[in-house]
Amino acid sequence: MRQPESIEKLINRFTRLGGVGYKTAQRYAYKIVEMSDEEAAEFVGAINDVKKNVRYCDECGGFSETPVCDICRLRDKSVVCVVAQPKDVAAVEKCSFHGVYHVLHGTLSPLDGRGADDIRIKQLLKRLDGVKEVIIATNPDVEGEATAMYIAKLLKPLGVKVTRPAQGISMGSDIEYADEVTLSRAIDMRTEL
Amino acid sequence: MRQPESIEKLINRFTRLGGVGYKTAQRYAYKIVEMSDEEAAEFVGAINDVKKNVRYCDECGGFSETPVCDICRLRDKSVVCVVAQPKDVAAVEKCSFHGVYHVLHGTLSPLDGRGADDIRIKQLLKRLDGVKEVIIATNPDVEGEATAMYIAKLLKPLGVKVTRPAQGISMGSDIEYADEVTLSRAIDMRTEL
Predict the structure, then answer these.
(1) B171 Ramachandran zone, left/alpha/beta (phi>0; psi -120 to 50)
(2) Cα–Cα distance between A147 and A121 in angstroms, integer?
(3) pLDDT tens across A130-180, in order?
(4) Would you call B65 and A4 a contact, using CB atoms and an 8 Å cutoff?
(5) What is the structure's pLDDT at A1?
(6) Which end of chain B, N or C, is surrounded by fewer C-beta atoms within 10 Å?
(7) Residues from chain A contacting residue B41 (CB–CB below 8 Å)
(8) Which chain A residue lies closest to B105 (C-alpha atoms)?
(9) Is B80 helix (H, G, I), strand (E, B) or coil?
(10) According to the 3-state scheme, what is the secondary structure of B2-37?
(11) Do residues B32 and B10 make contact, with C-beta atoms less than 8 angstroms apart?
(12) Going by C-beta distance under 8 Å and a sequence separation of 6 or more, which residues neighbour residue B23?
């Protein structure tokens, strides 16, 4: 006999969060069942608040609760870091970067039919007033590299410095286990001590 | 600069589901942000439904959406499987058990000040009419064993057969890696082929 249907339904919902199997989803659902009503209401409230309040910043396209996000309002606009997804902003924010962002909402992908007009490249070109440097922090994979090259070609004639985060061996990792593409790249880009 | 506060709050809520670290909670929260409003509403609805509909069965103490659960209403009451927590019912349900359950809602634990009156032992004694066998499926740890012993001592004088699931080496595991207590128990309880 199955467990109560509303528990089954909640388990099913949890499995849609991505990377959550049935057993884990079941554990989360039981946790909800055992929560106090207040705690569950706060959980529901937190989800509702995110759906109600979080939007994309009109300027950078990152997550924001206001038409223009705090980062765009308060920080140095002479350096722009271009990322593919809004969640990449949180990753770069952990570093000592003090400029602003531009979120493309995707990368160029001819195979998926995603061209330059489908990601926020035009909006980037409109923001270049006073910009000295554009750091293109898309992923170091085929699509991310292609997108970076494409944007670099557009920006360089406009006299903007275009850079890309260095690629090489991760800190704390082992040369023995580095894949050959990464290691070749790291040797090509070697720096003088 | 931090990400929008409502996202931070939702991440914090997800970390309370147990066994969810910050990075995982962040992943779930971003998934919620990127969900359609309808999908998020259904997720919220599933949580609300669980809180509204799920209660404990008046007879067995397991999860139910009705005063008496389907298992208690429809199944053979001559065999009762005693478990510590409502969620243990779902685990036993995966086996070919066709009797009913009795959920103790805890185990005896003198150290935590939990005695026989704090778990549903009295309610078990009231359900013994027509019961031929009680299987005590509490965990094979100190508290679970003590609870099983205690209940067995109460039930045996009443002429009820009291059993406990066999303990031994897990299926598919390796004798080499079995801990010594488990292996000793498995050898003590060896069966003839």
Answers:
(1) beta
(2) 10
(3) 999 999 999 988 999 999 999 999 999 999 999 999 888 888 888 888 888
(4) yes
(5) 64
(6) C
(7) 51
(8) A34
(9) strand
(10) CCCHHHHHHHHHHHCCCCCCHHHHHHHHHHHHHCCH
(11) yes
(12) none
